[in-house]
Amino acid sequence: MIPGFALAMLAFTGCGDDDENPIDPTDPTDPLMDNVLSGQITEDRTLTADAIWTLDGRVTIVDGVTLTIEPGTIIKGNPGASADAAVLIIARGATIDAEGTAENPIIFTSSTDNIAVGETAGTNLDQNDRGLWGGVVILGNAPISVDGNVEAAQIEGIPADDINGLYGGTDPNDNSGVLSYISIRHGGITLSAGNELNGLTLGGVGSGTTINNIEVVANNDDGVEWFGGTVNVNNVFVWAQADDAIDIDQSYNGTIDNVVVVLGEESDHALEIDGPEGQLISSFTLENATLIGNSATNDGEIADYRSGATGATNNVLVFDFKDSSDVELDNNGVAQNFLDGNLTFSNWQVVLPVGIAAANEVFIEKGGCLTNCEDDDDESMRTFEDLIILTPDFTERAADWTSELANSDAATVGAETSAFGWTYSNTKAGLGF
Q: What number is the average pLDDT over the span 55-82?
């Protein structure tokens, strides 16, 4: 639960006082900026916490190579256009060993961030500074569900001629290493119109991989996106992303546990859940989530379930959303999965926005695709039914697993927020975790 006094701080937009003599992160004479990574890393490498490391363009850890990152290490990404954007890729068969701690998290940020060695935050950027570099991409050999039912595909945002951008395979237990106590800030640079990088992209990552205590702040696209795979992830915090906070695609088959989403002024959905694109069908579990909206967000939806999604979303607390925000089943395929019991919801608690009389009213049926359905992302190309769930409808069933709250302090579901006391977001937004 979140203390009531903290809610007024969620719209925080200012920066702290500048240091008297901050390090200029673009100064080539700064000895701490001597450690530049670029191109393919073909031998095991360790990044130490006594220096600032810089990603210059697309940096790839290739098959058979391990990248080790010490607790407290700061990695900054240079800006770049299109294929030259700074991004760290852990290719299939490569391994990352990045184990930070609550006291010394590993921080990925922009080269324009004036954070210095030994610090956990700079002073010149805030949650509205997005798209200043790329992001972090982990690719594995676990199953995915894509068009054509092929085993592997090219991850979005990486040029098609780069074979290190391939992800997916036949090993659900594949191990890409460890990510723990990681903060990823100010990423999601625009590669082309409508094509940005996520803060953390997980493509075909297997269950042998350990991922926990992840924070993504001010990303220009999604916070964390799963493309298939089987990796379990716990303790995820996303603040002020420009698109979706938690995005599931291509029949992701794992568990995401203990999630906090705090929408910013440019955010879209807290959750966007897609299903299979090919014949492989598997189910996700998302549980123990706290989703926090705000009145300034133009879009700011709660969740969108699409493209035949199957899985379970349990123990969710929703508050501070506008009365126009909703949870949607937006096509016939996903609606049928709901009716068949293959898409389930349980224990949702909603602090009612003004104008909403009952918690189940945030659940709606949007209408199904009747024509031009091959372009499901382009609403101008679609024709909808008025209703896709008739008897009983979505909202009627929702009455069995939703309840309304007067305020978030009364919640008995949602995330264990004390897990996020270490985060930049907790400090900057004054959340009181």
A: 94
